[in-house]
Amino acid sequence: MPADHPLLLSFRQESPLASVNWDERILKAPAASVFHCTAWAKVLSDTYGFTPIYFTALRGSELVSAIPLMEVESWLTGKRGVSLPFTDECAPLDFTDLSGADLLEETLRVGRTRKWKYAEFRSSKKLFNDAPPSHIFLGHKLKLSADTDALFNRFDSAVRRALRKAEQAGLTVEFSQTLDATRDYYSLHCKTRKEHGLPPQPFQFFRHIHAHILAQNLGVIVSAKLRGRAVAAALFFHNESEAIYKFGASDDAVLELRANNLVMWEAIKWLARQGTKLLRFGRTSAGNEGLRRYKLGWGTEEYAINYYKFDLRKNALVAEKDGAAGWHNKIFRSLPMCLLRWTGSVLYKHSA
Length: 352
Prior knowledge:
Blueprint: E1 9-14, H1 22-26, H2 38-48, E2 51-52, E3 54-59, E4 62-67, E5 70-74, E6 78-83, E7 93-94, H3 100-113, E8 118-123, E9 135-143, H4 148-154, H5 157-167, E10 172-176, H6 179-195, H7 203-214, E11 219-226, E12 229-238, E13 242-250, H8 259-273, E14 278-284, H9 289-296, E15 301-311, E16 316-317, H10 327-334, H11 337-351
Parallel strand pairs: 6-8, 13-14
Antiparallel strand pairs: 1-3, 2-5, 3-4, 4-7, 5-6, 8-15, 9-14, 9-15, 10-11, 11-12, 12-13, 15-16
Helix pairs in contact: 2-7, 5-8, 6-7
C-alpha cells in the first residue's frame, strides 16, 4: 500500500513554530483551545527554551489526531515530555476517528528513543485504557450566552451579593492588552503568589504572553481599579468559541470590596458579547474546597482533569501528589519579594 494511501495511518513530529498553517489545521478540531495553538508554544519556547515536538497522525494528507508536547531538558529534574508545561489541560485531539490511542503509543515510543524519564499528559479525557490517572484536578466550565440576566440569576446568592457590593464600592473596570497593563497585573500577581506561599513566574513569561497572546488579540487583561490603582486583575485567553481564565490576582488589603468578583463578572459579560460560548475557570486542587466553592458559585459545571505520568523506565503509570501545598509554602511566604522572584525565575524552568 503506498505511503499516501488514504486509509494508511502515518505519524509525524511537527513544530508549530516552523509550520505556516499549524493554527489553521489544529483549530479544525472542536476541542482545540489557545493552548493547542502556535501562540502558547511561542510563550513556552521563548521563556523557558523548551523544545516543541507536536505529534500528529494523518490518513493520507488529512490530519486526524494531535498531541502537543514540549520536551523539557533539565539537569535538576531530568529529560521528559510534557503536554503541556504550565497548562491546566491540553487534551489530545481526535478530529475524525479513533486514531488517538495509536498516536499516544507513538508518543511513548519516541519518548523512549529520546531517553525521557517520563511523559505527562493533562486531559479531561480518559487515556491509557481507562487506567487510574496519576493525579486528578477539578475543572469548571460555564456556558455563556447573550442573556446576561439569565447568567446572573444562575449564580449563588453569595456571588450575587458580592457583585452588588463591588458595584457600589466605586470601582472601575478596564479591559486592556497593553504591556503597561501586563506590568500592573504582574505587580498584583507577585503579591498574591507570596500570600499563597508560592514564587511568581518570571516577568519574561508575562512579557511573552503579552507579545504572543495579548498583542495578537488572543487574550485580555481585566482590571478593577480603586481611585486609579489596580486592586484586582485577571488574564483571560480566548479563541472564537472558548475562553480560559488563566491567572488572577488581587490586593488582600481591600478584599472586602469583592473586586475579584467584579472582574470575573465583567469578563463574563464581555466574552458573551464577543460571541464566546464557553469559559473555563482553570484547574483546582481537589483539596482546595474554598476555591472549588467559589467557582461552583458561578453556576459552573464541574469535571475531572486527569494528569497521567507515564514512567518510560518502568513502562507504567505512576501516582503523583499535588505539590502546590506543603512545608515549602511557609518558607516562600517568608522570603523578601526580590528573593522570591529570583527563586521563581530559577525554579520554573526545571519544574515545568
